[in-house]
Prior knowledge:
Number of helices of chain A: 12
Radius of gyration of chain A: 22 Å
Distance between the termini of chain A: 60 Å
Oligomer: homotetramer
Helix content of chain A: 25-40%
Strand order of the largest sheet of chain A: 3-2-1-6-7
Strand content of chain A: 15-25%
CATH topology of the largest domain in chain A: Rossmann fold
Largest sheet of chain A: 5 strands, mixed
Mean pLDDT of chain A: 92
Amino acid sequence: MKRVLIATGGGDCPGLNAVIRAVVKRAAQEEDWEIIGSIQSFDGILREPTEIMVLDEHSVRGIHVDGGTIIGTTNKGGPFAWPVKNADGTWGAVDRSDEMIRKLQYMGVDAVISIGGDGSQKISQKLFEKGLNIIGVPKTIDNDLSATDFTFGFQTAVQIATEAIDKLVTTAASHNRVLVLEVMGRNAGWIALHAAIAGGAEVCLIPEIPYDIEKVAKKLKSRYNKGKGNAIVVVAEGAAPKGGTLLSEKSDEVGYENLRLGGIAHQLVHDLKSIGFEADMRETVLGHLQRGGSPMAYDRILATQFGVKAFEMVLEGKYGEMVAYRHPHIISVPFHEAIDNPNFVDPEGDMVKTAKGVGIDFGE
Amino acid sequence: MKRVLIATGGGDCPGLNAVIRAVVKRAAQEEDWEIIGSIQSFDGILREPTEIMVLDEHSVRGIHVDGGTIIGTTNKGGPFAWPVKNADGTWGAVDRSDEMIRKLQYMGVDAVISIGGDGSQKISQKLFEKGLNIIGVPKTIDNDLSATDFTFGFQTAVQIATEAIDKLVTTAASHNRVLVLEVMGRNAGWIALHAAIAGGAEVCLIPEIPYDIEKVAKKLKSRYNKGKGNAIVVVAEGAAPKGGTLLSEKSDEVGYENLRLGGIAHQLVHDLKSIGFEADMRETVLGHLQRGGSPMAYDRILATQFGVKAFEMVLEGKYGEMVAYRHPHIISVPFHEAIDNPNFVDPEGDMVKTAKGVGIDFGE
Amino acid sequence: MKRVLIATGGGDCPGLNAVIRAVVKRAAQEEDWEIIGSIQSFDGILREPTEIMVLDEHSVRGIHVDGGTIIGTTNKGGPFAWPVKNADGTWGAVDRSDEMIRKLQYMGVDAVISIGGDGSQKISQKLFEKGLNIIGVPKTIDNDLSATDFTFGFQTAVQIATEAIDKLVTTAASHNRVLVLEVMGRNAGWIALHAAIAGGAEVCLIPEIPYDIEKVAKKLKSRYNKGKGNAIVVVAEGAAPKGGTLLSEKSDEVGYENLRLGGIAHQLVHDLKSIGFEADMRETVLGHLQRGGSPMAYDRILATQFGVKAFEMVLEGKYGEMVAYRHPHIISVPFHEAIDNPNFVDPEGDMVKTAKGVGIDFGE
Amino acid sequence: MKRVLIATGGGDCPGLNAVIRAVVKRAAQEEDWEIIGSIQSFDGILREPTEIMVLDEHSVRGIHVDGGTIIGTTNKGGPFAWPVKNADGTWGAVDRSDEMIRKLQYMGVDAVISIGGDGSQKISQKLFEKGLNIIGVPKTIDNDLSATDFTFGFQTAVQIATEAIDKLVTTAASHNRVLVLEVMGRNAGWIALHAAIAGGAEVCLIPEIPYDIEKVAKKLKSRYNKGKGNAIVVVAEGAAPKGGTLLSEKSDEVGYENLRLGGIAHQLVHDLKSIGFEADMRETVLGHLQRGGSPMAYDRILATQFGVKAFEMVLEGKYGEMVAYRHPHIISVPFHEAIDNPNFVDPEGDMVKTAKGVGIDFGE
């Protein structure tokens, strides 16, 4: 009997369960493989008592339809920075990675499949360097990883944001209002850009293109002059004005979860008012609604492809690598190639050209 | 040729277009009736140049599927309190109701159908007392009117809030979090109550049942002790702690649109933390997403029933009355019976009993 | 310890799981009650080995969101007509009701909650007359029961049918086609009538109003003459031409499941062609898609109300009665009042008037 | 003033309106360009009186959200085979292509953008060879074109089919049934394959992999033996048994619209019964529901990219070429490369491997 442990780390993302199910169903086709899950990323291994879950065909039945992850997740700590309370009440961190690797050996774990974002992949690389048989599955709802054409969860987030715009358009038109929708995207504006095109927004503000508040006001005013006061402004949470500090630069330690949701939408409305733009403006912040819910077919399929491939990489002993999608193939790339190779919106790229082609303004 | 003018007032609400379409299609079955719409409630009549829209079968084709209102709406002013800028730059209001009635006569309008909320119905009653042939169609997304069993838009808002809970449940479970969802309901907690039952929330806070923050914390903690840290708290924007001031009491002049969205959710999380509740908590505010989008079949049907009945009341000369639904009949009631007769959640009623029956806590 | 057994019978219907969950959660608030479910209606009790499922808070968590029934269902047989294979290979039936009651006593079952349609309620009445402590919960997706204002599942079916029309409208318009949509409704046309209004259909054919094929063609042709060839025809599966035999009269034994799906839509298109109507016509049959999927908020709430009430009726010993909804109260009515008291569409009622008011033709 | 004519041909497909809107909005950024649409593909040009529609920013507002095509479509005839009734009552065809080109010159049309499927592109190539300034935009809901990575409409069709499976799964499980879902795919099984993976089907039958009915029965029986009788079988309309005739081979002239919907699903159930498979089986045919409704964000974006690019190709005079997507770029390819270069499911490809990896059986 060989044993594979799965862990899901970082913010939850539609498709995680489909990856888990695919690993389990693929493993069931081989003899003598058992899949277990560590509860809340690697924390389950390090907790006392150990928190793991047996993942068999029964326990994964139908879970590809559900959002979230049945084995839980966390975006704090990890084996290299396990939080401990100091004597003075402050919090510190200790490295428990060696202990974790010993625990995995003790548990008879032959290989680990780690599904997670940039932070998780870095941890995986370090664990691999310490000798752990580990394989990575990328998870970033923002689609901000250049090693893979697409990541699961992204299309679901775009669809949810687009449906939100569809809802806001009618209320904006009825009240002749400017509605500002804040979506995810701390460093990369892909969700905002895609949703702005799909929803037919008038303005789209993303981290990759610093905006000029006067230009934004000018675009919105030009509509008033044409008799159409209503407009939809889609803004990525990491967008910033020209000369302003990107949220992502404020602190490298700050993850999505610690950002003040609604901050940029609120600031934008405030700034527009302060330069004399008088339209009736309202903010909507999608927040956690973008992460939840049943994944779109697209994301279920991509996640299933990733899960099947991940287990096959275990069979082949392709450790130290991460699953990736290069249309139309599922491939694997070494961790070190995948990490620190972000995928930002190219201001000169085809997608921004398309957006400008249908009149979307980036406040440049 | 006889002419009927339609106006839609107050916040937009799924189903408004279905009412308009039904009036137009019913009128098309009679000879020599023309329907026109005043742009942005009665403002269109009073503006110079007059802003009206001809509503024929062509212009209403397919609009029952769309949210919002094709003739626009506003929740400011009205003929009895038309906003004017004073010499000192402050804003005042003048009564232009007589002028409006004269304008309607001049335009050859034989009857008016006014679709709107409590404020609109009060205006209608006053216009009726001044001799205008006017009929009311109730519009309150909050379902807070006792004269009618249900109002259109409510089921759509409940469905949207329920789907939001469905999305939040998986993310709450994956991260072991308490998620607070703020929904509409300044005076009446119907949307929160229905969504809490439909979504399977753990806690529901509504204006009709002032909450004790310690009791809310106790309920949430009891789940931690059972090993389930995650929970969904649904809170109506008008909910208030015991002894606190209801938002609705703070100012009678304050409409939805002027309330600070997210206020109560934010306060609740803050208050829970301040009494030592340490769970990972996040807020989500639905806001304008509840108003927009395609109305559910239920609301399209009710709105269509209201529209057909409203035109038939014109044919019968039943002025000074408002359409209402008393299962399974569409009836009419005099304005004075309908106004100031709100429909609040009964803390001892069957719906609250159902909620408590499935373990929902009201923080009492 | 007291024990309540739940059974779900007949065709599956969105909301069944919400009833089960509500019974379990309500029972958990009392001391010493255990809920068990019989697999596939009463069959689970009579099978060897007995097939039951323990229903505790863990096993019902989150099931209100899912369609179907976690304890399975069947629409064949039952304790009074258990199918047996005769020596000659034909099928007969035996009465195993006394045996079932003895088995329930042996299992220590104190009360039974039977969730099911007309057939199930008749079985419940007979079991009650034999001394069983039994309570009924009505289930009919067709809403064809006069004892209750509404039944769960109906609004979900209407919504699914309406969304189908929304999809068909654009394709009908693009191709200038007549699209015929067949929906459920063997005896009662409620789903067809509601969906036709909500979707904005041109023609609606229901069992309660026999149609004249010439009149249907005339209506469709009148649109061609006005330049709009496209049209949506919604037809209930039990609709029949004037003078024709209603499906429901063909055999009392025939349930939904045995009807030939698509029969009436196909016949209608054939008959229209045979009288010389030359438009491009296509059929769509919703079939099983109407039963499945997550119940709408409306149905989840009604089902939850029914479940809580059913358990409270057990506490009160109100056996021989069925839960019902009389707006805005949840009440109970004796089986004998509920059975054989169908709720048909009234051709002179308010809902048909509304439909005709927006120009829907019934082929009269 | 320069004039571009748009035509949409073949079966309607979610995203057509988004292409039209994008062309119009992109053209509005250049001076002196006018866009017009020919009603029902090229038929509008050849009819008397000519049927065209002016496409300006007003007429395309919000249409990207709607299914269908505002300028109508047809999948019959075309300029090279215009249907004419012979003296003996039979139908023949005449070539009116030269006449159409002259008419376009007369109308002052400088360039044509033809959005359509394989048939339309062949017509475009022939018109280009006759000297017409024509650009192609591919439209195939089946994604069966190798010149482009993806075509719009496909993801929407997959999502609709997946949601249908989600609905069928609960009803299949509740009744312990085998449910057969027939989806589009006459020559290529992409929709069936994607939906089967996304929905978690047990069996998937596609044209590219002829099935053995005994193998299908064996797979379904193996589940019965494990105690799970329920199963979902997804079958593409063009699937065929080993040794059977593919629908696509029966007649090259037969388009989707002429195929008997439900044929293969019905045959499959019949064949399974005839070889002694005794499970309770039901068929569902998605039919026209797959084409309609609001396009997913993915398809709206791809369609918008195609539309913007198409107009830019007009600016560049890139006639005789078709827009295509090669991730992540929008490119153009000559007609002759695009035509007759279909994109079939590779039975040895990564997607089929993924499907087999999660246990989906192809009846091989």
